[in-house]
């Protein structure tokens, strides 16, 4: 019976790793004030009030109803940082990249050859050849040029926009079908992003609907759903067969390409149903943000998400 009561009171979304420390501190202060007021009439009552309050905070994450919502809306980011909290919720964009040291080394190398790369990129677009160091994929325009040059996107027949070419879409969904009924393995993800030669150990972790790729306990990729991850693996296999130098691309470059390509899906990868595009909300323990989201209409599985402010910028 006691266990049932505890389980009823417990709220895992606000405790453990999801606990909001600022909320906890605020509620502990309130509990102390409440206890001191009660203690003026009864010391025993004061201790009971504090004990019950602390117990509720431990189990529920807060004492005063609505504290998490109020914290997300009104607590300044500066105060959140005092508690070591990231003020930005995790956006499941796909492959994030390797550790900061690798990224800084890559950026330095790219910066040293930026002028040559820009010129070579123009040649690559017209000649339909490519190399990892020859392409700058830092903006949406660069990516669109890349997709068009390699026969991945073309002008839509009925709209002033870009759509998947029939040949690429057919090849992509053929690969998706081979993966849809299989268990997605860590090895398949590692191969898709060219991480086979890395000495680190990688693990694919399921967290609710999301799929996380971790390296030595550090997250290097997060997909909003299983279909999103399957779409990336399948697309990588198609690109490997269609772009001769795909295997030479750095993992970060592959991530840029695959993360963006997923946005052009017009049907859900695993069910074949329609997709819907709109704004949704993602939450961390202490903040909320709107995201631009592409979602499977039938299942609600999210395929792509991006911060609304980033899209507007």
From TrEMBL:
Ranges in coiled-coil conformation: none
Cross-referenced Pfam families: DUF8054_C, DUF8054_M, DUF8054_N
Stretch list, region Disordered: 103-138
UniProt domain DUF8054: residue ranges: 6-86, 142-263, 266-306
InterPro entries listed in its UniProt record: DUF8054_C (IPR058675), DUF8054_M (IPR058775), DUF8054_N (IPR058674)
Biased segments, Low complexity type: 106-136
Name of this protein: Uncharacterized protein
């Amino acid at each position: 019976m006691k266990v049932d009561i505890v389980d009823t009171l417990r709220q895992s979304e606000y405790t453990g790793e999801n606990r909001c420390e600022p909320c906890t501190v605020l509620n502990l202060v309130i509990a102390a004030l409440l206890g001191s007021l009660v203690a003026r009439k009864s010391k025993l009552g004061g201790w009971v009030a504090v004990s019950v309050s602390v117990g509720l905070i431990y189990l529920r994450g807060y004492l005063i109803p609505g504290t998490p919502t109020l914290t997300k809306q009104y607590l300044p980011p500066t105060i959140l940082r005092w508690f070591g909290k990231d003020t930005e919720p995790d956006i499941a964009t796909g492959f994030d990249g390797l550790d900061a040291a690798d990224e800084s080394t890559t950026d330095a190398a790219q910066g040293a050859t930026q002028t040559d790369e820009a010129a070579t990129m123009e040649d690559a677009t017209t000649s339909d050849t490519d190399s990892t160091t020859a392409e700058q994929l830092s903006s949406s325009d660069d990516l669109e040029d890349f997709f068009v040059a390699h026969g991945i996107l073309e002008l839509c027949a009925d709209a002033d926009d870009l759509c998947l070419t029939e040949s690429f879409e057919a090849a992509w969904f053929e690969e998706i079908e081979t993966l849809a009924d299989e268990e997605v393995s860590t090895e398949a993800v590692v191969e898709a992003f060219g991480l086979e030669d890395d000495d680190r150990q990688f693990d694919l972790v399921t967290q609710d609907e999301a799929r996380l790729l971790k390296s030595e306990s550090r997250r290097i990729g997060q997909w909003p759903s299983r279909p999103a991850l399957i779409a990336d693996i399948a697309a990588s296999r198609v690109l490997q067969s269609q772009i001769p130098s795909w295997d030479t691309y750095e993992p970060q470059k592959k991530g840029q390409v695959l993360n963006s390509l997923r946005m052009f899906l017009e049907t859900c990868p695993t069910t074949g149903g329609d997709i819907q595009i709109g704004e949704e909300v993602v939450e961390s323990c202490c903040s909320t943000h709107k995201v631009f989201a592409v979602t499977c209409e039938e299942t609600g599985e999210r395929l792509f998400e991006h911060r609304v402010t980033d899209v507007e910028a």
